[in-house]
Amino acid sequence: MIFLFKIGFLPIRIWDILDILIVGYLMYQLYKLLRGTIAFNIFIGVLTLYIIYWMVGQLQMELLSQVLKQFASVGVIVIVVIFQQEIRRFLLFLGNTALERQVEFVGRFFGHKEVLITNEREHQKAAVRVALQRMSRRKTGALIVLANGVNLEGIVSSGIHLDATISEPLLESIFNKESPLHDGAVIIAEGKIKSASCVLPISENATLPDTAGMRHRAAVGISEKANVAAFVVSEENGRISMSFRGRLEENLNEEQLKELLDKHFNE
């Protein structure tokens, strides 16, 4: 076995360094998924409980150790139950990352760096961007979810199935106050407006600003439960916001909006 160096009596191998880097990367991604949510506080509570359990064991406090042992013995099951949505989002992140790298490799292999980016997709992104900007100027409330191939069955309720071509006039007409479909979210997937007037889960994140209305909380709620991006136009001030992985970015300018659409409009 080849050792790189030693720290005292402890030999350090290249696999040890790789092990630390991988675990550190996974912990960082887990932190990004949980931060700003109630789940993060629960995670800190569970971690604190395990630290106390370890300290009690070291101090040989038998009675308290036995009590805490009952919690620790079912800790994995409790964590899976409490963090099922976060675990799902974490696995989706790993899967999406792997797929993106495979697509990039195939594209380079065949000499097409932009193999999946077509003129049609660029037109669709432009249509969504222009529609959001027009509704922003008119202070027309709107909520658009980019599903990107994620199955939202069981998360999104009701809604009217459309399967329509993405266009600025259609999006604007859906969210027009006189439209029967305006009170809800539009779901975009597979290059189509799949459905409208959808009811999304409402976030219970206590850290959201007081100015966040029901559309903003719905955008955060859907991004907490699924690996999707949700764009919001405020009916009060016309500002455009975006939520992804439970985080809300408010008051987007034109450049930021274009950048985020380029990043999240993948299907």
Task: Please describe the topology of this protein.
Blueprint: E1 3-7, E2 10-13, H1 14-34, H2 38-58, H3 62-73, H4 75-82, H5 84-109, H6 119-138, E3 142-146, E4 157-165, H7 168-174, E5 185-189, E6 192-199, H8 214-225, E7 229-233, E8 240-244, E9 247-249, H9 254-264
Parallel strand pairs: 3-5
Antiparallel strand pairs: 1-2, 3-7, 4-6, 5-6, 7-8, 8-9
Helix pairs in contact: 2-3, 6-7, 6-9
Brief summary of the model shown:
With 267 residues, the chain is of the alpha+beta class. It contains nine helices and nine strands.
Structure description:
The protein has 267 residues and is an alpha+beta fold. It is built from 9 helices and 9 strands. The strands form 2 sheets. It has a 7-stranded mixed β-sheet, sandwiched between helices. It has a two-stranded antiparallel ribbon with strand order 1-2. α6 packs parallel to α7 (168-174). The protein is elongated, with a radius of gyration of 23 Å. 25% of the residues are buried.
Poorly predicted segments: 109-116
Mean residue pLDDT: 80
Percentage of residues in helical conformation:
40-55%
- Please provide the count of β strands: 9
Portion in strands: 15-25%
Helix/strand order: EEHHHHHHEEHEEHEEEH
Radius of gyration from the CA trace?
Answer: 23 Å
Decide which structural class fits the backbone. alpha+beta
Distance between the termini: 47 Å
* Number of helices, counting only DSSP H or I runs of 4 residues or more: 9
Major sheet characteristics: 7 strands, mixed
* Largest sheet, spatial ordering of strands: 4-6-5-3-7-8-9
Shape: elongated
